Structures are given as structure tokens and as C-alpha cells.
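Homework help thread (please don't just give me the answer)

Our assignment gives two proteins as sequence + C-alpha cell strings and asks us to describe the second one. The first is just a warm-up. Here they are:
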Amino acid sequence: MSEQNITLKMSSGIFSYRIGAIIIHSDRVLMAQNNGSPFYYSVGGRGKFGEAARDAVLREAFEETQIKFEIDRLAFIHENFCVLENEPFHELALFFIMKTNNQVAEMKSFNFIEEYSEVTLHWLPICRLGDFLIYPEFFKTELNNLSNNVKHFITKNGITYRAN
């Protein structure tokens, strides 16, 4: 298996394949934040070429928390079309709900270093997600209304809508 993340630079822009872990405990969700950034985003990262999405989310969740998780289920598919650093950007993201375990209950906060920044993990109250700048934005409402169905969202020109 290749160790390359699936981020493709193309003549028309950049395509990225992202895998996110939704880790919930005591009505809070674990979110990451780059040092100096106002935005929070889900635990996770880029899938690697030849790596199944389920394997990628387990790997990313462990790399960022040092906790071995199990997957509950796939919850969201998100297609995001935007402009980043003056480049058209197309991201396909899969978000998995993770099963909570005893180690999660003991976790307060955690810092780690990525190639681009120091990252801190934060427990944000689900009922107050509207108070934060978070990605993806639909977490603000959807994490209060989780169902057993996979929901598909598309974001274009800053507007997010449900596709199914």
C-alpha cells in the first residue's frame, strides 16, 4: 500500500479525500483546532491510496488521540466545493461515528504536531456548536439529530444542502 495521502493537484484545481472520526462522549464532540486558527474540525485526515475508509478512520483517530477505537457506523458523506488559497478545491469526506470506550472518558485534551501546525483537541458541547466556527458546518445541527441513516451533504459557494 502506498503511503501517499489522496490529495491530487490537477490543472483545474485540487481534489482531496478526507476521512473524519466523530467521537462523542457526555454530550460533547471531540474537535481539532490548528494553533492560531479560529476553526474547529473533526478528528481525521486524508485517506491513503489503497487504504479502505474504515482503516483510514481507525488509523487517523489513533494517530490523533493515541486511543484505539472501534467504528460504530458511517454517518455522513460530504462533498465540498470551495476555493482555498486561490485554488478551486473539491473534497470528498466520509465521517464515521466511533464507539466510545473507557479511555475516551479519561481524555481531557491532547496536543500533537502536524507538518503544518500544532493541533489541539477540544471537547465541545454539542448543544453549543452554533457558538463555534466548525467544519463541517452541518455538524452544528446534525450531531443533535443523529440517525441510523447515512446522510449526504453538498457544499457549494458556501451553501450546504442535504443531497438525500
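The one we have to describe:
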Amino acid sequence: MSATAPSASYVSGRRAFAEMMITGGATLLFYPLSWGLRKVFDPGMTEYHISFFFFYLAWVINDPHFAVTYLLFYRDIKKRALSPETPLVQRARWIFSGVIAPIALITWGIIAIRMRSAVVMGAQVQLMYMLVGWHYVKQGFGVVNVLGARQGFRLDTWERRAILFHCFAGWAYAWASPASPPRDFEEKGVIYTGIAHPRWLELASLTALVISCVGLVAVVVLRKKRTGKFMPFSPVVGLLMSIWAWTIFSGADPLVRYAIPALHSIQYLFFVYLLGKNKALAEEGAPKFGRPVAVRLAFLAMGALALGAILFHFLPEFLDLAFWKKTPEGDVPDPIGDTPFFAAVFTFVNVHHYFMDHVIWRRENPETKYLQDVPKKPAPALAAVPERLAA
């Protein structure tokens, strides 16, 4: 997410704190909670139960966060991709992410399944894991922009560059480390060999990360000297959680790692809520007289829940049962596994989600204006009452 909302609306301190917790700050509470659970209960059984808890929680948080992207992206796609009112560069982005990218990804998955190739399918899985860090840090950048704007704060050019550099350096280091030779991995039943992460790449990305930290501190200090104020605290927390807790040190705690996808999804769904709520408010009255806000948000939520269940459960399970022969008990399983359609659909949705997000949340998309609260309409002026003439 990289949107910059165009207009400022100032939020109260209590609301700013709530937004901070929703967009990443709650992560800080999970570390002492995890430590306490592992101290009080058996660590192995605790991890077992926590993993299952977040597995089922994904039905109502993680899966809808992917699905709602389709509902946002393909709404009015014809107008967005073909209308001359949309700038040419933006139209090209819509067409590439909405047509070319999904066709390429579907073709990739079909080839892997037809060839029964774990190598081809594994390459798509590796692309997914390489891009997920990019997706997380870009969303963290969006938190700084949107929450900052909601508190009357704007990044200047150098601040934007410094924060983006820190985001990308964090993503690069998280992906490049630890240095390792090619190793075998298993994902959704697919057994594949990952590419090597050489030592020089880990050191180069670490150097870039350190430089980016210096740059980030520098722009914060310079703003303080120039304006007498630091950046608002709550947007910075969302940024740092996205980069450091969810990307660089995502595996630091054995229990928190299960919560990270859900925390990221909640962060994402908060901005979907802002956009949906404020757009509905703006269109509730004249001249559109749209449906009430609660109704539109309820339909969006139900659509996301239903589509998420279809994409991550019903569709791939049906395809695997109907079109894939299971390995007989006692035989050596195929490296592509017994659920290749599940692996293909899972990786497709993840990677396509990253492409669509890169378009939806750009500041060039006029709908990002709804990430700011709709100003309250002023009360209609009372008609002037003529003074009574003296008798």
C-alpha cells in the first residue's frame, strides 16, 4: 500500500492510539503474551494449539483480506482500464495487473500441473515468498502516508525517499538472510529446491539496511530541527512493525510468527474499511443517494468472506478431488504432492494480490481520497426572519 491521501482530517489522540494498535501496534502485546504462555504451559503443545487457532482464524481474517482485493480491483474495471478519463500510465497498470499478470500466473500453474513438475510449481512458490516481504513493507509505507495525513502530517520528498529506501532495504535483507546453499522445502505438498542465498548477498543487503537506518534517523532529526516536531508516533509504529517485526524478524518468536499474517491482514482491512465507509458516506446523499453505509460495508464483508472461502478452500479442494489421483498408501508420493491445485491456487492468489494492491493503493488512484474522513456537511443556514415592523 502506497497511497497518499490528498486531504487532511485530524483525529483525536484516543482515535490515533486505536488506529496505531489496529495497524501494527498490537504486535508489541503478542511478545509478552507468547513468553507468558510458553512459561506457564508446555511450549510444544502451546505452539500446536496456537497454530491451529490462527489456521482457523484465517477463514475470517486472512482469506477475506485477499478476497476483498478482487472486489475492489475489478469493480468498474472497464472504466478504469479503458476510459480516456484515466491517465494512460494508470490504465496500463490496471490492464497489466488485471489481465496480463493473472493470465501469466494461471498459465504458469497449468504448465506445472500438466508437467507434474514440482520444480516449475516451486519456482512460483519462491516468487510468492520473495514478493511477500515487498508487499508487507510497501503496506507499512502506506500506513505512514495515510495515518500521517489523518493527523495533518505530510512527508516531504526526502522523507519519502528515505522511508522507501528503508522499506526496500529491510525487504532485501529479510529475503537474503540467512545465507544458505540450495535446500529442499515443502509448501502445500510441493517439495522443491530453493535457490541459494550467497553470503555476499546477505552482507550487501545488511549494509544497505544499516545505511537506510542512518538515513531514516537523519530525516527524523532534520524535521525536528526544521519544524520543532517529530513525526506522529502512531504511523511510525505501523511502519516499523511492518518492516522489522513482520518482515526482518518474522521468525523471532515461535508463537508470534503465526499471528503475523493475521496482524498484517487486520492492518489491510482497516484501510479497506476506511475507503469503503468514507466512499459510502460521500455517496449516501444527493446526487447519488446510495445505500446506507452499514449496508454497503456488510455486503463488502460478506462478499469477501464468501470469496475467500471459495478461493482458499472450496475451489482448490474440488479441483484436487476431481482431477488429481491421490498417491496410494505406502507408495512414494509425487514431489508435486497430492494437492497441486491447492498449491497453484494459493500461490496465484497471493502473487496476484500483490500486483493488484500495487495499483489500488497508489496515490494516482482517485479513490484513495476516501482514506480520509468525509468532512461533515455544515448544517443548512436558517432562512432570515424579517424584523417585525413597528406598529
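TA reply:
I won't write it for you, but here's a hint about the kind of observation we're looking for: Residues 13-326+336-371 form one domain.
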